[in-house]
Design brief:
Chain lengths: 213, 289
């Protein structure tokens, strides 16, 4: 008998001994609610991320201003990102295009000024951005090791609350992809339940919210 | 920066998980600082050690659980980082992934009709924050990684009540119920504590206290026996004429070190009632009319 069989047998015996019936569906199906974009922006800003609101067609300009304001010299852009986004950068900014096969050391990644990505789903009530690390979002290390993350959020991807986001991820069929939920920059609340920013993850998070036309 | 260097150079990482989804094989880590992301993303090999109670049936079950956990834990709307992964993703993160599912006493807890609810715990620590006993003792007193009220019901179940600390944990509570009120997954911690106290007493076997309590139970079990005992006590009180000892002898002296032994009254309540009342409950002297 393998350890797995032994454990499964113990679980079945225990459930029978405790008189536990079969477990049904714990959570009723969720009809995904659209989120309030104003509330999303307010909550993201409350977590000390920078929020920039812009419109379709004006995204490149907004990115150019953010990169200029932060004095970023090199911008990492994962493959699949909208090529228009980098059209308004100053001549002093070098753009580093990274596709899935591009080998890049952690030292190089750490030296990058910022990573620019899109996002999959966002949550209004919690100010959360979810990356599924598909095209335009890059593999996980690209948004982890660099100290700044500039993330573009399309207003139509904002849902109301956490259960809506879980349901949307399943509807998109990305629930088995690596998923990173980000609610503000790196922080800890371990010390006396006070939130302190900037521990291991990127210390600067800029969220560019693109309203639908 | 020292810690960051270690993260960037580590070849193997060991993690836990907050939830594991049966339907998709997905593991979930809820954290704040980003050290979890570093651990789950950068090394070549990832070994995740997960208790079997962390398994939930469906991906959709994460909706309410991820809503409850940060709000009950730190009071935040949402924790800074939540990571989910399902096995190996080619070209992204560790390419060698292992999951170790741990029983270690959990199926023993699962078999207990009362105690099994403790396995619902999502480790939010809300019960710790409201517990008057935890506030005084701190976490180390619980002798485990699970402190506070949930530790007081989880540790004795996982490890048994054989050791001194595990036998004492069910008593580390005033049964005030604040933990039950704070618990987001509705674990009736006081109920389990009382059930575990029974188990501790049963495990101890026969004791002088048990014999004494048994005798008291026999005495209180019949009105006739209680009446006889009360009559004997009042008789002893009358005969001693106020010279009853203030302290009990031997091992019972501990109880009277800080308390006076009450002198038996000259008349029991039941005798007084019979003397002053008619059979229909009215006073003979008419004072309550």
């Amino acid at each position: 008998m393998s350890a797995r069989d032994e454990m499964l047998a113990r679980i079945r015996t225990a459930n029978a001994a405790a008189g536990a019936g079969p477990t049904g569906r714990l959570v009723p199906p969720v009809e995904v609610q659209h989120g309030d974009v104003d509330l999303f922006c307010e909550n993201v800003a409350d977590y000390r991320a920078t929020v920039v609101r812009t419109r379709e067609g004006e995204v490149a300009g907004a990115i150019g201003r953010v990169v200029g304001d932060l004095g970023i010299g090199s911008l990492l852009v994962p493959a699949g990102a909208d090529p228009d986004w980098t059209t308004a950068l100053g001549p002093e900014v070098s753009v580093l295009q990274v596709d899935d096969g591009t080998a890049i050391s952690y030292d190089e990644l750490g030296a990058v000024g910022a990573t620019l990505t899109s996002s999959s789903v966002s949550v209004a009530r919690t100010g959360t951005i979810i990356l599924d690390h598909s095209a335009g979002q890059g593999r996980r290390e690209l948004t982890l090791v660099p100290d700044r993350h500039i993330c573009v959020v399309a207003a139509r991807t904002v849902v109301d609350d956490v259960p809506d986001a879980v349901a949307r991820l399943a509807a998109l069929g990305v629930e088995q992809r690596p998923l990173t939920w980000i609610s503000g920059p790196s922080a800890t609340s371990d010390i006396e339940l006070d939130r302190v920013e900037g521990v291991h993850g990127p210390r600067t998070l800029v969220v560019i919210v693109v309203d639908d036309d | 920066m020292h810690l960051r260097e270690k993260f960037l150079r580590a070849k193997v990482a060991v993690s836990g998980a907050n939830f594991a989804v049966a339907e998709t094989g997905t593991l979930v880590v809820v954290e704040s600082e980003g050290n979890g992301r570093m651990c789950l993303t950068l090394p070549e090999t990832l070994i995740s050690v997960v208790g079997i109670e962390k398994v939930v049936p469906r991906f959709a079950d994460l909706g309410p659980l991820l809503t409850l956990l940060p709000r009950s834990s730190t009071g935040e709307r949402m924790n800074p980082y939540t990571s989910m992964w399902t096995g190996v993703t080619p070209g992204d993160g560790p390419q060698d992934v292992h999951v170790v599912l741990v029983d270690n006493g959990r199926t023993h807890v699962l078999a207990d009709p009362v105690g099994r609810q403790a396995l619902r715990c999502i480790r939010c620590s809300a019960c710790l924050n409201v517990c008057p006993v935890y506030e005084r003792t701190g976490g180390h007193a619980y002798g485990s990684v699970y402190p506070g009220p949930i530790g007081a019901i989880l540790n004795p179940q996982l490890r048994g009540v054989g050791s001194e600390v595990d036998a004492s944990l069910p008593y580390a509570s005033s049964l005030c119920g604040a933990c039950f009120e704070a618990c987001p997954v509705r674990i009736d911690i006081p109920e389990v504590l009382v059930d575990l106290r029974t188990k501790v007493v049963e495990a101890k076997g026969a004791s002088a206290e048990g014999v004494g309590m048994g005798a008291m139970g026999w005495l209180f079990g019949s009105a006739g026996r209680l009446g006889l005992a009360q009559r004997a006590a009042t008789l002893a009180g009358r005969l001693s004429r106020g010279r009853m000892p203030r302290n009990l002898p031997g091992p019972l002296s501990g109880w009277t070190n800080a308390r006076d032994l009450p002198a038996p009254p000259p008349e029991t309540f039941r005798d007084w009632w019979m003397r002053t009342h008619d059979a229909d409950g009215t006073r003979r002297d008419g004072s309550d009319r």
